[in-house]
């Protein structure tokens, strides 16, 4: 069983920082083209439109990273209220501090 710190670092790697790799962009667009009625196919279509308008893939990935953080934080916050045994008490409040970069989700400053 992972410690709180190990769990939060794993969450950062698997759910928050993963979009920075950019693979999700091509996957979403390919899936949307293959099956326009699939769940969340509209995301692939929206990403395609944004890229055609000049959006940078890196910027889209930064937005997706933020969405991942928000989803994890909200889930942990909800679990905190829903778990009577206190197994996840305060876990959401430790999430930013667990950022493996040590920047607590803040952008990298040039020269770092």
Describe the structure.
With 112 residues, the protein is mostly helical. The protein has one domain. It is 56% helix and 0% strand. It is built from four helices and no strands. It starts with a helix and ends in a 30-residue tail after the last helix.
What key attributes describe this structure?
single chain; 112 residues; mainly alpha; 0% strand
Can you give the helix content as a percent range? 55-70%
Count of separate DSSP helical elements:
4
Quaternary state of the chains: single chain
Q: What structural class do the secondary elements suggest?
A: mainly alpha
Tell me the distance between the termini.
Answer: 34 Å
Stretches where pLDDT is under 50 for at least 5 consecutive residues are none
Summarize the structure.
By secondary structure, the protein is mostly helical.
Topology:
Elements: H1 4-16, H2 23-34, H3 41-52, H4 57-82
Helix pairs in contact: 1-4, 2-3
